[in-house]
């Protein structure tokens, strides 16, 4: 089991980074590849080593909290690694944990790939287990913060329609500020296609945010 990799990130894509560890390049799928793209320093990426009959994957995270929540999500019936990765791309571990504990289906169904039935399964399968991992996920999972603190409302905007609003809310959950997202939207608004999805718009916004 590979628990973490430590090296220099030499390549970024919309879904993964490549980490050079002693002249071996490890492809690591991560919720926010561009979060590792701001420095040439050696980084530590906490990983989950996923083995299937036909393939082996590394999923990586910036913190132990993300790694722990990812593994908990895999315990939910119907949630595989790709969906779990999308969940963490749409919300921080403490916000996801708090939403599960407080049975906030409205928040959970806004996460990529999560419908009402899956959200209900998340609550059913994990609500009683959140307390057991709250030390690693953070005090928010224990309900010590208010819902307003954990799920802040985005600044109102008439631009972008529903797709951008959902993408914007998910990006705010990743820690980006309203000012940063307004700048990203200003650069993207003229290129949004009629069939643009939330996931694709998030990825393009992240690329723009990385460019600064």
CATH class of the largest domain: Mainly Alpha
How is the CATH topology of the largest domain named?
DNA polymerase, domain 1
CA radius of gyration is 17 Å
Derived from helix and strand composition plus strand pairing, the structural class reads: alpha+beta
CATH superfamily of the largest domain: 5' to 3' exonuclease, C-terminal subdomain
Largest sheet: 5 strands, antiparallel
Brief summary:
This is Holliday junction branch migration complex subunit RuvA. By secondary structure, this protein is of the alpha+beta class.
If you had to describe this structure to a student in words, what would you say it looks like?
- The protein has helices at 64-73, 81-90, 93-101, 105-108, 116-126, 130-137, 147-150, 161-173, 178-188, 198-211; strands at 4-12, 16-21, 24-29, 42-51, 56-61.
- The protein is of the alpha+beta class and 212 residues long.
- The protein has 3 domains: 4-61, Nucleic acid-binding proteins (OB fold (Dihydrolipoamide Acetyltransferase, E2P)), CATH 2.40.50.140; 64-150, 5' to 3' exonuclease, C-terminal subdomain (DNA polymerase, domain 1, Orthogonal Bundle), CATH 1.10.150.20; 161-211.
- Strands 3-2-1-4-5 form a 5-stranded antiparallel sheet, with helices on one face.
- Helix 9 packs across helix 10 (198-211).
